[in-house]
Amino acid sequence: MPNLQRLLWPVLATLALTLSGCSDNPGSKTENGNETAPPEYPVTWRFALEEIEGSVQHAYAEAFRKNIEQVSDGKIVVDVFPYGSLGTSTQLTELTRNGSVDLAFASPGHLADQVPETGLFNLHYLLPDDAERTRQLLRSPELLEELQPSYESAGLQLLGLVSEGWMAWTANKPLQAPDDFQDLRIRTMTSEMAAEAFRNYGAAPVQTPYAQVYSDLQLHKIDGQANPVFAIEEMGFHEVQSTMTLPRASRFISSVIANPEWFADLTPQEKEWLTTAIRNLSEQAWEIEKELNQERLELMVERGDLEVVRLTEAQRDAFREISQTGRDTYLEATGNKGKALLKLVLTGREPNNGEQ
Ligand code: 6CS
Predict the structure, then answer these.
(1) Going by C-beta distance under 8 Å and a sequence separation of 6 or more, which residues neighbour residue 161?
(2) In CATH, what number is assigned to the domain containing residue 92?
(3) Taking CB atoms and a 6 Å cutoff, what residues make up the pocket around ligand 1?
(4) What is the DSSP pairing of strand 224-228 with strand 186-188?
(5) The whole model's pTM is what?
(6) What does the DSSP assignment read for 299-312?
(7) Is 23 exposed, middle or buried (0-12, 13-18, 19+ CB in 10 A)?
């Protein structure tokens, strides 16, 4: 079980909350508040992660740190806070909103209660099966532009979307048909949309923070959980589960967010460094996740950690059919904005659509 410093969270989170407004970012306004003074370098950008060291988010943040420190010639120092040092995903979003940290990962699985439109990424069998088409979709400016106002309303700046691999379902049995989910206490991320996807299959979802999943599985408070393969391995879930089902029902998508005021106060040069780094990394993340997920799957198979079950197309079809009702729930929660987003994704799924 990884060291998550769980007991220290309340203290650290309070500490971080009291740091609000003390960002090292340049106090760029002059006294009359009209002009922007040149930043006093070096400045520190604080970047909070929802995952521990060795994860996809950690590899991403380290690549980001190196890139920013290099292009800024050391003017900017990036401080990375892996999961466990500041708080749960929801707390990290709050720390970003109030300016205690400048940048963070915010996964729709947790964020959809605050930004309902992101519930799109919790829907099953919606994104294309094809990785390249998904890649085009996630980097399309239309999708980011469509989502940005919803983040803005929640006091957040959306910078990019990052795919971390297919979600795998673990339990102490294979999950090959919706019937296998009847009353299964499956842990989901904390938003309603994340839970709803499994409620549709007949499960009894339990919404829990990431750090609690291992012990809840160990104590049989829950029967299963869903996460990408790399996360299952690094969080030790294979130690307390017998079977991993690979349904290719949804990909784990996360978003990179910033504090809006911090973002607005960046100089044009800093903004350019930031947006270029995010754009390049959203691409690089595909390679990072592919490698990590493959490597960890092989590791778990070699060690005989758990049984691996891949769903057939016919088995996937049975889940796909039931999962369609999730789209109605999404539309009820998001109205016209959700309708536009859903349309965008469905159009992007078609062959010959999206960026060439
Ligand atoms: O299951 C979760 O809660 C977490 N899973 C991953 C892979 N990243 C962050 C998220 O909070």
Answers:
(1) 138, 139, 143, 144, 253, 254, 255, 256, 282
(2) 3.40.190.170
(3) 50-51, 89, 107, 110, 164, 189, 210, 227-228, 231, 252
(4) parallel
(5) 0.91
(6) HHHHHT-SEEEEPP
(7) buried
C-alpha angle 291/293/295, rounded to 5°? 65
Q: What angle do CA 182, 183, 186 make, to 5 degrees?
A: 105
Domain hosting 27: range is 19-347
pLDDT of residue 85: 87
Can you tell me which atom of ligand 1 is nearest the CA of 189? 3
In the block, tokens 């100089």 appear at 267
Tokens of 319: 């889940």
Give pLDDT tens digits for 201-236. Answer: 999 999 999 999 999 999 999 999 999 999 999 999
- The CB-based long-range contact list for 142-148 (8 Å cut-off, 24+ gap) reads 142/344, 143/341, 143/344, 143/345, 143/348, 146/117, 146/337, 146/340, 146/341, 146/344, 147/117, 147/118, 147/341
* pLDDT of res. 24: 53
Number of domains, the chain: 1
Q: Is residue 355 part of a domain?
A: no
- What distance in Å separates the CA atoms of residue 125 and residue 325, rounded to the nearest whole number? 11
Q: What atom in ligand 1 is closest to the CA of residue 225?
A: 1
In a domain, 12, yes or no: no
pLDDT at 27: 45
